[in-house]
Amino acid sequence: MVALWHACHLGRGAAAGFTTDALERLVFSQTYFDREGLIFAVDGDRLVGAVHGGFGPNESRSGLDYSHGLICHLMVHPEFRHTGIGAELLRRGEEYLYAKGAKRIQAGPAPEDAPFYVGLYGGTAPTGFLQSDPVAAKFFSTHGYHPGAKYLIYQRDLKSGREPINFRVTTIRRKMALSLSEPLGAPNWWWVTRLGRLDTLRFGLVPKGGGPEVAHVTIVGLDLYISCWHQRAIGLTDLSLAPGQTDPLYKQVLISMVCQRLRDELITNVEIQCNESNTALSQMVLGTGFTLVDTGVVYDKNG
Question: How far is CA 116 from CA 28, 119, 158, 173, 193, in A?
Fold first, then answer.
């Protein structure tokens, strides 16, 4: 399966250079992994295609919601494309999901819904199928899906460029410091079973003179992307204001200070993702020196 993954050239957002250990840690060892949901196409003794069906979380993030079926990945070796293998794999993946109770199906899970491949596809988290994957959009549109939610993927190159100048941000920044802790005080099951398998740390923004935290963000190690991005990268997720705080500039100050801290640690690339509908976050990220590098699309099954 590792050889198939690398042969399929899945685009800039697919990890590369990893071994079976990564699949074991991030996919096969999940407590809810069901081998019936991972369906292979073979030519003799050669693996030429695969589809993986799974399910999103329930509302409390304490277990799976079997009414929400997901096509987590679908791959066909380039030598065997346009032969009907992809369509048959998709059909069998959907069949598996319906048999388990799915009432709706999406192809390419949203970041908060992905049960598998966190750390292997999409960067910081899976964001549907990436537009940099040249075959996904046409394939799913042809087979009964339409584009749904879109996720914008921004990156900032820490090797070049000065810190963007914003006088309000600078004024707040002078009064603030970073705190470092383990992610989340009481993470839920869904967080632990996915991001808990990666290297993570939590940065908080706190007043220098003392006082409670005003914002926080979790950083995620993206070491599995080193061989394809040729940079040491970190992802930012769970960016939030503390309860009772309303000034969005705290988020911008936090991102700016975290980027400086990561640069000092010889990290050269930082990534953050946001839903396309969150225009305020997109504008803030752009104002902190990030650029748009890709877009992820979740495809909803028609009907």
Answer: 9, 9, 29, 37, 10
CB atoms within 10 A of CB 200: 20
Cβ(128)–Cβ(297) below 8 Å:
yes
Alpha helices (runs of H) in the chain, residue ranges in sequence order = 2-7, 20-23, 85-99, 136-142, 167-173, 189-194, 226-229, 249-264, 279-286
Using an 8 Å Cβ cutoff, are 269 and 236 in contact? no
Over the stretch 28-44, which tens digit does the pLDDT of each residue have? 999 999 999 999 999 99
Which tokens hold the place of 144? 């009964």
Helices 279-286, 249-264: axis angle to 10 degrees equals 40
Given a contact cutoff of 8 angstroms between Cβ atoms, the answer to whether 212 and 242 are in contact is yes
Burial (Cβ within 10 Å: 0-12, 13-18, ≥19) of residue 110: buried
Tens digit of each residue's pLDDT (9 = 90 or more) over 166-192? 888 999 999 999 999 876 555 799 999
Q: Which CATH number fits domain 2-149: 3.30.70.120, 3.30.1160.10, 3.30.300.30, 3.40.630.30?
A: 3.40.630.30
User: What's the distance, Cα to Cα, between the start and end of the chain in Å?
Assistant: 32
- The pTM (predicted TM-score) of the whole model is 0.94
Tell me the pairing of strands 145-157 and 291-301. antiparallel
- Among candidate residues 293, 294, 277, the one with its CA nearest the CA of residue 148: 277
The token pair at 30 is 């999940």
Separation between Cα atoms, residue 180 and residue 182, nearest integer Å: 7
